[in-house]
Amino acid sequence: MIDYFALLNEPRRPWLDEEELKSKFFALSSGVHPDRAHTLAETEKRAANERYADLNAAYQCLRDPKQRLRHLLELATGEPPAKVKEVPGEVVDLFFQIGVVCRKADEFLRRKTATTSPVILAGLFEEGQAISEQLINLRGKVLSGQKKHLDELRAMSEDWSQSLAVIEAIYNALGYLTRWSAQLQERIVQLAL
User: Which of 8, 49, 81, 169 has CA atoms 20 to 30 A from the CA of 163?
Assistant: First the structure.
């Protein structure tokens, strides 16, 4: 397994400054970028492209908190984090709230799609707005939960290796929160159309 932290000259830790990471990626990849390597001999071009692909994969992994934690846990333990089959206790209530409102939004969207009458569509406007507001409020809670976990990662000391269980719990929670955020955003957009 490639150590993406080492590849980008970053210390292994759960929190990385995104702007510093971006700067390192650009500095390391500028010389091997495909736009600059096209004049090289074929073997050098292939090596430059492979190096750029590795650097890009490292950057894409480390810039995303959830992927970064997964990679960190894999490097620390030698195996991927265990798959979570249960919603973490701290977000169970939110899980149920999201389920109720998403089902309500999906049912509303089915009715709206099946309606051809402009008069009936106009009558559905207020209901759609109310559901949209509920989705937006829930997404705010999800984003707040994500921020809380990211703040926890930022506050972790350099000796994070003593906190692998905490890091894995944050990884699992971020997995759910990230997925829910996308699901809520998708429905918000659909309702706006």
Answer: 8
Residue-wise burial string across 5-33, b where 16 or more C-beta atoms lie within 10 A, e elsewhere:
bebbebebbbbbeeeebeebbeebbeebb
Q: pLDDT tens, position by position, for the chain (193 residues)?
A: 899 999 999 999 999 999 999 999 999 999 898 888 778 888 888 999 999 999 999 999 999 999 999 999 999 999 999 877 788 988 999 999 999 999 999 999 999 999 999 999 999 999 999 999 999 999 999 999 999 999 999 998 677 888 899 999 999 999 999 999 999 999 999 999 8
128 close to 113: Cβ distance less than 8 angstroms: no
State the residue range of the domain holding 40: 4-63
Burial of 87 (0-12, 13-18, 19+ CB in 10 A): middle
Torsion, Cα of 60, 141, 148, 77 (10° steps): -50
3-state class of 5 per DSSP?
A: helix
37 and 96 share a domain? no
Residues 56 and 105 in one domain: no
What domain count does the chain have?
A: 2
Q: How far is CA 168 from CA 11, 38, 72, 84, 101, in A?
A: 19, 42, 10, 10, 29
CB-CB contact of 83 with 167 (8 Å): no
